[in-house]
Design a protein that fits this description.
By secondary structure, the protein is α/β, with parallel strands linked by helices. It contains 31 helices and 24 strands. Among the domains are: 2-61 and 125-244, Distorted Sandwich (Calcium-transporting ATPase, cytoplasmic transduction domain A), CATH 2.70.150.10; 320-351 and 533-667, HAD superfamily/HAD-like (Rossmann fold, 3-Layer(aba) Sandwich); 355-529, Calcium-transporting ATPase, cytoplasmic domain N, CATH 3.40.1110.10.
Length: 888
């Protein structure tokens, strides 16, 4: 490659040609390939030239849609078009009050939509913020501290423990270097780093010769060449995936949009037919136009989006009390429709806390979770684990520091009475040999009487190879080939159970400077695990009962993932485990896979899309940068609140404040309750609106005057209908709601049974209202204003009593979820005041076209408005009584 590489990329933000294979290039050649010198670094002039060529070391953000564009988007609705047309016609005919009312309704709906959808998408900004700190580099032969955004490919970067990695760096020197890459690769254990090249096709988590932007150096130090900056880094690749992940509208949004579109076409057809019939029978064109406007206004449930928004907001509040913070309103209902949950492992299904599970000693095995299983020799093995340790334990777990594995070893020592501080006083530290990625061992030398005690821990194969003896209980005995083979089998046995295995050894010498990794006495093995959360099996069983598939998607190894899957009851007989490269097998094996292991960010995104392509409603959990694209793409992205990164939380629709999987199950329960309530109040609103359409239509067909005015219909739909509908949205769900399977992804809010019920209820309401109109017009010969008042109040009160017809089938007529809901009674009281008040307030009554009703009018209103309630309840009681007999 050489210097010629730098003349082929001239676009700011591009990636150097040597970046893709940098991990496989020998360390001594990498600086030459990037045109730099490890001892002197770049010159300032060359750095400026490259900064202009490759751009600053920042991750570019996608331009957000402006508020104006979002506002205009709210107007792109068939319902808005229809209402706007009705308002325009009202203006044309000089009906100013009617036009003003329609415009007010449009403003309310548009405002609600605008403010509920104005959710700032900060995912890319969160990515950009990662690693935007200072960086130490060599330029012009001296070390400088520069803003990280000024780094360029070819800079020589110096890294130490505690640093956030500012760019993708190819190491040329490293000393005991380890990096926490969990947020990028999903690996829960810090990765050892070395300048040695790795295979060209090595996966991201296996590129030990590289440091990646946005990760954290745990310990050690190193020097490397910046091979990629800004958008060219692996973190930048994740940012591009987040941009590409365009979440579809939620199921609720799709259903409401479909329902609205269908209603508009039905309304237009009905209005044109009835208006045409009126004109054909000799009625005035303007009168028929006014009737068509009344029909359009009557049929549109203006209160539906308002109540849906309020119901979803209440669901957010209820979920927040259960540690589920909802970022997007529609996500509340989406949870109830979830059919597949793709969950990560660490911290969600497990406790995210390494624990020593087993000690394998020459004298026998010890289960440390069983207090009565102590065995001889435990103290010596754990003494080595405690002394050869860089971690510290605080007063409480939140103040522990150091490697999680070493913290677990200290806690295991405390469980048998070994305190590190006390041990350090008895055996003072003389020398420490930090963990070396080549030897894969760590050693400390301690003063012990007249000599020195050397204690070693590390990779079991390495410690076993460095040992010459084994602890025989009464003394050290030679470690022969048969014993080595037996211990190798035991190492494999622990690893197959998903445990992380380390070995411990020791020796006593006179010389503190002797090689610590020769002539060791092998003491045994330590098996560590991240235990499964105790509440997860019950939560998984609840998901299975609810018809929801739960699939583990993790960056960890397959063996570890499968072990946890079996421990929590996630994997069932016949289900497979797929490790890495899932993009090639997604189309064929989704139904058979319980665990996807060693999954990359792009593969997680592909998995979510694959399940969505099959019609599934997908919930995806995650906490790291690598999870952000999939979280954004999923129907409901669920981020971890305790350990999750800002990027993950901002890409998700829901944040778990306690990181607990059972919280998701509780949220699914609440989501199903919300959908049932939305279906309930949608049926209520549409029955009321359809009854208004039928009343107007019957008047046109029977040659009677228009019985209810468009302004009165708007008053009913926006003011009085909203409160009972919202009260219905406050109903509590059934206790067995999770015992039924999830709804089919394509199931509409209102199916055939709901539409039959809506039509029947609307017909009864319309007949009763029209009956009151006929009695007032023909029997009592009331004047025009009085007839309109009777029709308006009859229909209004009949709609109020309609709430009692929304009880679930099988519940009693007097004691059910509706009558037990205090919000229902409060709504009825408020609406009664809002209906009666204008009739007794001339100023308001004149605007609405109402007069003060007398006793005769009230008699008609009350008798006609209660008739639908009595008829529907009687019919429900008859059907309930016939049901068991019919089944018998």
């Amino acid at each position: 490659m050489g210097a010629a590489t730098w003349d082929t990329r001239t676009t700011p933000g591009s990636t150097p040609a040597g970046k893709e294979a940098a991990h496989a290039v020998p360390g001594e050649d990498i600086a030459e390939e990037f045109g730099t010198c490890p001892r002197a670094g770049l010159t300032e002039a060359e750095a400026r030239r490259r900064l202009a060529r490759f751009g600053p070391n920042v991750i570019a953000t996608k331009e957000r849609a402006g508020k104006l564009a979002l506002f205009v988007h709210q107007l792109a609705s068939p319902v808005v078009y229809l209402l706007a047309a009705a308002g325009a016609l009202s203006l044309y005919f000089g009906d100013w009050q009617e036009a003003a009312a329609i415009i007010a309704v449009l403003a309310i709906n548009t405002g609600l939509g605008f403010f509920t959808e104005l959710r700032a998408l900060r995912s890319i900004e969160g990515l950009r913020a990662l690693g935007t700190r200072s960086a130490r580099v060599r330029r012009d032969g001296r070390t400088q501290v520069l803003p990280a955004e000024d780094l360029v490919p070819g800079d020589i970067v110096l890294i130490e423990g505690g640093d956030a990695v500012p760019a993708d760096i190819r190491l040329v020197e490293a000393s005991n270097l380890r990096a926490d890459e969990s947020t990028l690769t999903g690996e829960s254990v810090p990765a050892d780093k070395s300048p040695k090249p790795v295979a060209p096709d090595a996966r991201l988590a296996e590129r030990a010769s590289m440091l990646f932007r946005g990760t954290l150096v745990v310990n050690g130090s190193g020097t490397g060449v910046a091979v990629a900056t800004g958008a060219g880094t692996e973190l930048g690749a994740v940012a591009r995936l987040v941009e590409q992940a365009e979440p579809d509208r939620s199921p609720l949004e799709r259903r409401l949009a479909r329902l609205s579109g269908q209603m508009v076409w039905v309304i237009l057809a009905l209005a044109l037919v009835l208006a045409g019939i009126g004109v054909a029978t000799g009625k005035d064109l303007r009168l028929m136009t006014e009737a068509a406007i009344a029909l359009a206004v009557a049929a549109i449930p203006e209160g539906l989006p308002i109540v849906a928004t309020l119901a979803l907001a209440r669901g957010m509040w209820r979920m927040a009390r259960k540690n589920a913070l909802i970022e997007r309103l529609s996500a509340v209902e989406t949870l109830g429709a979830t059919t597949v949950i793709l969950t990560d492992k660490t911290g969600t299904l497990t406790e995210n806390r390494m624990t020593v599970r087993w000690l394998l000693l020459p004298s026998g095995d010890v289960d440390l979770t069983d207090p009565g299983s102590a065995a001889a020799g435990t103290g010596r093995l754990l003494q080595v684990a405690v002394l050869c340790n860089d971690a510290t334990l605080g007063v409480d777990p939140g103040r522990d520091s150091g490697d999680p594995m070493e913290q677990a070893l200290l806690r295991a020592g405390l469980s048998v009475g070994l305190d590190r501080i006390a041990l350090a006083r008895e055996r003072p530290l003389v020398r420490k040999h930090a963990f070396d990625a080549v030897r894969r061992m760590m050693a400390t030398v301690h003063a012990s009487g007249p000599g020195h005690l050397t204690v070693v821990k590390g990779a079991p194969e390495a410690v076993l190879a460095a040992s010459r003896h084994i602890d025989g209980g009464t003394g050290a005995v030679p470690l022969d080939d048969d014993a080595r083979c037996m211990w190798r089998r035991r190492i494999e046995e622990l690893a197959s159970r998903g445990l992380r295995v380390i070995a411990c050894a020791e020796k006593t010498t006179d010389d503190a400077g002797a090689d610590p990794f020769e002539g060791l006495t092998f003491l045994g093995l330590v098996g560590l695990e991240d235990p499964a959360r105790k509440d997860v099996p019950d939560a998984l069983a609840a998901c299975r009962k609810a018809g929801i598939r739960v699939i583990m998607v993790t960056g960890d190894h397959a063996v570890t993932a499968l072990s946890i899957a079996h421990a929590v009851g996630l994997a069932r007989p016949g289900e497979r485990v797929v490790e890495g490269g899932v993009g090639g097998v997604v189309p064929d094996c989704l139904e058979e896979v319980a665990v996807f292991a060693r999954v990359s960010p792009g593969e997680k995104l592909a998995l979510v899309r694959a399940y969505q392509d099959r019609g599934e409603i997908v919930a995806m959990t995650g906490d790291g940068v690598n999870d952000a694209p999939a979280l954004k793409q999923a129907d409901i992205g669920v981020a971890m609140g305790l350990r999750g990164t800002d990027v993950a939380r901002e890409a998700a629709a829901m944040v778990l404040l306690d990181d607990a999987f059972p919280t998701i199950v509780g949220a699914v329960h609440e989501g199903r309750v919300i959908f049932d309530n939305i279906r309930r109040f949608a049926a209520y609103l549409l029955a009321c609106n359809l009854s208004e359409v039928l009343v107007v239509g019957l008047a046109i067909l029977s040659a009677l005057p228009l019985p209810i005015l468009p302004l009165q219909i708007l008053y009913l739909n926006v003011v009085t209908d909203v409160f009972p509908a919202f009260a219905l949205a406050m109903c509590e769900g059934r206790h067995d709601i999770l015992a039924r399977p999830p709804r089919a992804p394509g199931e509409p809010i209102l199916g055939r049974p709901q539409w039959v019920r809506i039509t029947l209820h609307a017909a009864v309401l319309a007949v009763a209202t029209f009956g009151g109109l006929v009695v007032a017009e023909l029997w009592f010969a009331l004047d025009r204003a009085s007839v309109v008042t009777v029709t308006f109040l009859t229909l209004a009160f009949a709609q109020l009593w309609q709430v009692f017809n929304m009880r679930a089938s099988g519940s009693g007529p007097l004691r059910n979820e509706v009558t037990r809901n205090p919000w229902i009674w409060a709504a009825l009281l408020l609406c009664t005041v809002l209906l009666v008040g204008p009739a007794y307030m001339p100023a308001v009554g004149n605007v609405l076209g109402l007069v003060t009703p007398d006793s005769t009018m009230w008699a008609i209103i009350l008798s006609a408005s209660f008739a639908p309630l009595l008829l529907v309840q009687l019919g429900a009681m008859v059907m309930a009584a016939r049901g068991p007999a019919g089944r018998a």
